[in-house]
Amino acid sequence: MTGLSRRAFTTAAMASLLVGCAGQATEQDANASARRSRGRQGTGDGSSSDSSASANSGRALGRSVPVRLRIPAIGVDTPVMGLGLARDGTVEVPPITADDRAGWYRHSPTPGQVGPSVILGHVTVGAYGDGVFRRLGELRRGDRIVARRQDGSSAEFTVGAVRTVAKADFPADQVYGDVDRPELRLITCGGPREGQEYRDNVIVFASLSPAAP
Predict the structure, then answer these.
(1) Strand residues in 87-153 grouped as ranges (E)
(2) Would residue 198 count as lying in a domain?
(3) CA angle 72, 181, 150 (to 5 degrees)
(4) How far apart are CA 36 and CA 200, in angstroms?
(5) φ/ψ of residue 204, rounded to 5
(6) Residue 89, class by beta-carbon neighbours within 10 Å (0-12 exposed, 13-18 middle, 19+ buried)?
(7) What is the four-CA torsion angle of 89, 90, 92, 93, rounded to 10 degrees?
(8) Is residue 199 part of a domain?
(9) Residue 162's domain is classified under what CATH number?
(10) How many helices (H) does the chain have, and how many strands (E)?
(11) Residues forming beta bridges with residue 85, ordered by sequence position
(12) How big is the chain by its Cα radius of gyration, in Å?
């Protein structure tokens, strides 16, 4: 995913929306990033070419969009919708509905591809109450996340870190920056609520688990 994130995604998530915890990115940059990601995926066997990549990381998968997300430790089992860019250039977020779902940002890699796949979810959904990612901050290192993909395969990830950060200090480069292995980012809102907005973001960092022998 050479060059994918630093330009397109460094600006994404910097200007957080109400409870969706997405942000701004230009359509031109996002589409260019997606093309570079697909180009990288078409080379070699899809595994990381950097010798510094973790030996415990799983082998990269081909492109296939996520359709379901399961996080057993916090009771999440949700369909996954695709998210793009809104007319104003901000990253879309899932709609505020009673049947709240997570959303995959389709200009990021699909789960299992090399690079940071980004999935967003609400912590609350207005009058409907709790959102699908309401317990995201309870995850701990070693917890499992399973993304079911459209081709029938699953990409299983292992949580490496969970961080709560002020939106004003969002670590865009760490979230969206280039990585040489398949990783996953789950993002929602958190921390104190100030009026209709949350002060912080909760970010889960996870990497693709090795295949079982």
Answers:
(1) 102-105, 115-120, 144-149
(2) yes
(3) 55
(4) 31
(5) -105, 130
(6) middle
(7) -170
(8) yes
(9) 2.40.260.10
(10) 3, 8
(11) 91
(12) 16
Phi and psi dihedrals of 108, rounded to 5? -105, 165
Nearest to 132 by CA among 177, 90, 186: 186
pLDDT at residue 183, rounded to an integer: 97
Confidence (pTM)? 0.77
Tokens 């379901």 — which residue? 68
Higher pLDDT pick, 48 / 155 = 155
What is d(CA 72, CA 146) in angstroms, rounded to the nearest whole number? 9
3-state secondary structure of 154: strand
Residue 124 has which token pair?
Answer: 């609350």
Mind listing the pLDDT tens digit for each residue in 129-167? 999 999 999 999 999 999 999 999 999 999 999 999 998
With respect to residue 51, please indicate whether it lies within any of the assigned structural domains: no
Q: Which of 174, 183, 199, 9 is nearest to 123 (CA)?
A: 199
- What does the block give as tokens for 85? 């860019």
**Residue 146: strand, helix, or coil:** strand
Measured CA distances, 178 to 12, 112, 138, 182 (Å): 14, 15, 26, 10
Residue 185: domain span: 4-44+57-208
* DSSP letter, residue 21: -
Strand partners, 115: 182
Give the count of domains, the chain: 1
Is 164 part of any domain?
A: yes
Least confident window among 31-35, 95-99, 130-134: 31-35
Distance CA 176, CA 13 (A): 9
